[in-house]
Amino acid sequence: MTTVAQTISDSAVITRRNLIKVKRVPDLIVFATLSPIMFVLLFRYVFGGAIQGLPPGVSYAEFLLPGIFAQTIVLGSTTTGASIAEDLQKGLIDRFRSLPMSRSAVLIGRTVADLGLNAISIVVMALTGLVVGWRINSSVPEAIAGFLLLLAFAFAISWMMALVGLLVRTPEVVNNASFIVIFPLTFVANTFVPLETFPTVLRVFAEWNPVSAVVQAARQLFGNLPEGFPAPDAWSLQNPVLYTLLWVLLFLAIFVPLAVRAYLRTASR
Amino acid sequence: MTNAVVVEGLVKRFGEHTALDGVDLTVAEGTVLGLLGPNGAGKTTVVRILSTLLQPDAGRAEVAGLDVVAQADQVRATIGLTGQYAAVDEHLTGAENLEMVGRLYRLGKREARARGGQLLERFDLTGAANRPAKTYSGGMRRRLDIAASLIARPKVVFLDEPTTGLDPRSRLGMWEFIADLVGEGTTILLTTQYLEEADRLADRMVVIDRGKVIARGTADELKAQVGGERLELTVATVEQLAVVTDALRPLAHGEPHADQQTRRLSVPVTGGTDTLAEALRRLAGTGAEVLDVGLRRPDLDDVFLTLTGRPTEETESSATAESTTAASAGAQS
Fold it and tell me: Is residue B318 part of a domain?
């Protein structure tokens, strides 16, 4: 077998192992889908009435759902870090590292399995969204591109979290640490409210925040930005798909090698 | 006879702490080496270097003729590792765990399954094969862990404290499995805190303390250094200590040692339970009030007392220091 074929085959074995856990611990999938449903309902009906700054004729449900998608998958990606820290604690990473397997397969298998979980979350959220008034107003290929872009972004975040998990080593700490980063990233963005209402400093941060770009890109690709919507000033939000893809590539280029290196050295201190 | 494991001048430091300070050892093909030492002595560090998880700071190590640093990939295909903690995925069933590890050792799907089935049977896990490993007892998890390390028929197997934390019955079972493995020609490096375990399983032993080898040899050679069995008893008053010492002196093979403070008497003896019976008869004749009496075989504590002049407990503080460093570094030592 060639090295690439070995890596694919080993990664498939690890992915399968991780997905078996999802099957055996159904709570995981229940909570992974309940919290997005809760977010959809909370923002749609609790805050929805009070959100200002939307142009007339724009439904908050249509504005909101792409934001919820992005926030949920970014949060979903943080589980990558906690799972890897758990494998470290239980000695499984030691076992894997003593096997003649591909050096990156454990991390690929983890991030791919988490990608699968995120895909399930998105389907559940999309169905909930359709119930509360969200609609896809674009073509099928555009809508598919929208979902794929969201998943690509989540995959890139997963690799960053894999590195965090390998460095932090305690699942609980990984969770707490990631909330500190993930909450500002997902809230100081166009996720739930239009940027026009932000103070200047926050607005500039939000305009260049990759989460804003992925949300803007999703709104574009799902056709949730009707005619009356004000055009953004920042280049990042004028070209959200390109800007998001650049972030995805940048994250992967940085965090894939760093995470693999950390994995190989994880006990070597 | 060729050596399956060769370790020369191995040094490993964790920050300020020197875990291994020039360790040399060899394991002849098809034999068992018992690596003994208290917590924190460096046993696990040796195993982690030999299984390519850690890189040494100096010295070299070979497994099956392969250098553990330069030829790490080939080493990994040759060895089986069972760490101190059963590294099984608790959500997978026993059968799934073995199949996964088999696949990662590059066995085909069918072969991994068949081999997994054989090992489950051999380790008495067939009945639990399709239950998630989290429902297993500690002993079952250990057995599954060892089965996983054997799935690709490794030439050299590292067993790091395979019976620590097991109840006595599981421990005996584990000893039988290990003995069978040796019978099939596998080379084993076994770490343990128990002299009895090494005595039972190992052809040769290496005792390390604070990262240095302090003794090596066969069980008999080590015991000769440590001394044989002893009769130990405690009496009610200090006055009685002298009485019972005189009564037992004819049975002693060496000078009896009386401790006034604990009112304990330790008499080197031979002859096992016959001697014990004779001693009890003599003690009854003295009329002394004996609170406690028994035969003691030398254990690791005695090896340490003899070799280092301090009991294993005194190494605890340094052991704790190391395990703290090791835990923060994620490296169990």
Answer: no
